[in-house]
UniProtKB/TrEMBL annotation, chain A:
Annotated keywords: Membrane, Transmembrane, Transmembrane helix
Protein name: Cation:proton antiporter
Domain of life: Bacteria
TM stretches of this protein: 12-36, 48-68, 74-95
Provenance organism: Croceibacterium xixiisoli
NCBIfam families, A to Z: CPA3_mnhG_phaG
Molecular function via GO: sodium:proton antiporter activity
Automatic annotation (TrEMBL), chain B:
Topological type in the membrane: Multi-pass membrane protein
Family: Belongs to the CPA3 antiporters (TC 2.A.63) subunit E family.
Keywords annotated in UniProt: Cell membrane, Membrane, Transmembrane, Transmembrane helix
Protein name (record): Na+/H+ antiporter subunit E
Chain segments annotated as coiled-coil in the UniProt record: none
Main localization category: membrane
Upper classification of the organism: Bacteria, Pseudomonadati, Pseudomonadota, Alphaproteobacteria, Sphingomonadales
Length: 113, 160
């Protein structure tokens, strides 16, 4: 097990809570892939990971490295920004492909143009 | 000014990004400035449509709103996944939209898809409407209201 003796107790607690929270939220998002029924419903839950999940992990990372190096480390904000801005593109692409196919097959669940 | 920095906002963003990534040292501030000036000129070759973003209090207000909505809808979607409420139904909505600026529409698309629970599918420029999919569809007009009043007004302020 890797020890980090330089991290004070209060920081270790904050980092631990946020890492666990972020990981749990991402896990819930992944669970949604199994538990929901249709493709369009299943597109929604994975966004939990790139939004709140990422935010929690980044807060933990900022706290950890700002305390260890005793200066504010904020470049994690860039990770958050890029992840949040790019994931929707993939999701839209997937959903558009599904809509296109469903319309072509004349599926009654999808509104026609 | 326009000749040296054709895209001032892009240059400022590149500079901030460089300094954030490398740490505040005089050498990197100089390199960052050079990168910001030279790299932003690459965009000249692409000839993008001018965006005319108005810098006002609407931008931080929109950012705050998006942050709060992302938190709230994360909790809502997590609850749906964990407890699977029986009466929930999902569905498609045709959302009438007045925004026409492509940058504003792209921003709205990213905001709505990044927020768990709503998914942007298709923008129909001719009929001025957007097809969205909502995970927890209770009342269609409520969603239309929410998006029109919450986001569209602010985006109009920023982009149009």
């Amino acid at each position: 097990m890797i020890q980090s003796p330089d991290l004070p107790l209060w920081a270790a607690i904050i980092v631990g809570i946020f890492v666990l929270l972020g990981a749990s939220i991402t896990l819930i998002g992944a669970l949604g892939l199994i538990r929901l029924n249709s493709f369009y419903e299943r597109v929604h839950p994975p966004t939990l990971g790139p939004t709140l999940g990422t935010i929690c992990i980044l807060v933990a990372s900022i706290t950890c490295f700002s305390t260890l190096q005793s200066r504010p480390i904020v470049h994690e904000l860039l990770i958050g920004l890029f992840v949040t801005m790019t994931t929707p593109v993939t999701l839209m692409l997937l959903a558009r492909a599904a809509v296109y196919r469903d319309r072509k097959e004349g599926s009654p669940d999808v509104p026609q143009e | 000014m326009k000749r040296i920095l054709p895209f001032p906002l892009l240059s400022a963003t590149l500079f901030t990004m460089w300094v954030l990534l490398t740490g505040f040292s005089p050498g990197h501030i100089v390199i960052g400035a050079a990168v910001a000036v030279i790299v932003s000129r690459v965009m000249l070759a692409l000839q993008p449509e001018p965006s005319n973003i108005r810098i006002s209090s609407a931008i931080p207000r929109l950012a705050g709103l998006v942050f709060v909505d992302i938190l709230r809808s994360n909790i809502a979607v997590a609850r749906i996944v964990l407890f699977k409420p029986k009466e929930r139904k999902s569905g498609f909505i045709h959302l009438p939209i007045e925004l026409q600026n492509p940058y504003a529409l792209a921003t709205l698309a990213v905001i709505m898809t990044a927020t768990p629970g709503t998914l942007w599918l298709q923008h129909d420029a001719r009929n001025r409407r957007v097809l969205i999919h909502v995970l927890d569809l209770v009342d269609e007009s409520e969603w239309v209201d929410l998006i029109k009043n919450r986001y569209e007004r602010l985006l109009m302020e920023i982009f149009e």
